[in-house]
User: Which sequence fits this backbone?
C-alpha cells in the first residue's frame, strides 16, 4: 500500500491536504517513525507538497472505534429511560465502574452489555451498589458483565498500577491531584501521605 511521509512539523498540514484531495485511506492507522509520520493513501498522488514524499508501507487496520452508549441503547430503551442513563463512568484499566439509576435497575445487565460494546477498552463492567465502607474505604460493587474480575491494571503519568477494587480505595478522578503533588516534590524530600 502507498503512503505519504512528512516530518512531525508538517503532519497536521499533510493530513488536511490529503483530506481535501480525498486521498487519505480510511480504516488504517498512520505510522509514526523516528523522523516523521506516514499517512496511508488511496492511490499514488501525482502532486505532493515539497515537504512530503510517496513511500510504500504496510499499514495496520484501525481499532474498533468507541460508540456513544445512548446510541447503542436507542432500540432497547424508551426515550424517558434513555434520558436517565448515566453515560459517564470511571475507567480503571479495562474495568468500567458505573452508577445505574434506581428507575433502570431492571435494565442494568442490558446497559452493561451495551457499555462493553461501546468502548473496545472495556472488558468488565461493575456497578457501584453503595458508598465506601470499612477501614480501607472499599467501594461496594457488583459484577454486571464481561470478564469477572476486580483486578485492574491502571496507567497514569507513566506509571502502571495494579488495583484490586474489591480490596482497596482508588479513584482515577484524582489523577490531576496526584500529578500536581508529584511535580512539586523536590530531590531528597520525604512525602507523607496522610490516611493512605
Assistant:
Amino acid at each position: 500500500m502507498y503512503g505519504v511521509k512528512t516530518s512531525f512539523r508538517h503532519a497536521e498540514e499533510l493530513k488536511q491536504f490529503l483530506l481535501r484531495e480525498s486521498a487519505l485511506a480510511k480504516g488504517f492507522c498512520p505510522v509514526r517513525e523516528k523522523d516523521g509520520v506516514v499517512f496511508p493513501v488511496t492511490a499514488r498522488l501525482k502532486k505532493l507538497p515539497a515537504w512530503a514524499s510517496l513511500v510504500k508501507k504496510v499499514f495496520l487496520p484501525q481499532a474498533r472505534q468507541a460508540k456513544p452508549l445512548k446510541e447503542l441503547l436507542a432500540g432497547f430503551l424508551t426515550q424517558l429511560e434513555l434520558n436517565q442513563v448515566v453515560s459517564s463512568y470511571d475507567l480503571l484499566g479495562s474495568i468500567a465502574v458505573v452508577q445505574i439509576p434506581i428507575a433502570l435497575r431492571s435494565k442494568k445487565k442490558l446497559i452493561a452489555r451495551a457499555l462493553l460494546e461501546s468502548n473496545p477498552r472495556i472488558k468488565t463492567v461493575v456497578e457501584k451498589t453503595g458508598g465506601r465502607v470499612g477501614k480501607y474505604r472499599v467501594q461496594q460493587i457488583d459484577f454486571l458483565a464481561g470478564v469477572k474480575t476486580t483486578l485492574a491494571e491502571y496507567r497514569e503519568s507513566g506509571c502502571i498500577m495494579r488495583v484490586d477494587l474489591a480490596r482497596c480505595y482508588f479513584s482515577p478522578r484524582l489523577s490531576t491531584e496526584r500529578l500536581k503533588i508529584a511535580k512539586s516534590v523536590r530531590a531528597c524530600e520525604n512525602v507523607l501521605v496522610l490516611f493512605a
Observations:
- Residues 108-118 form the longest helix (11 residues).
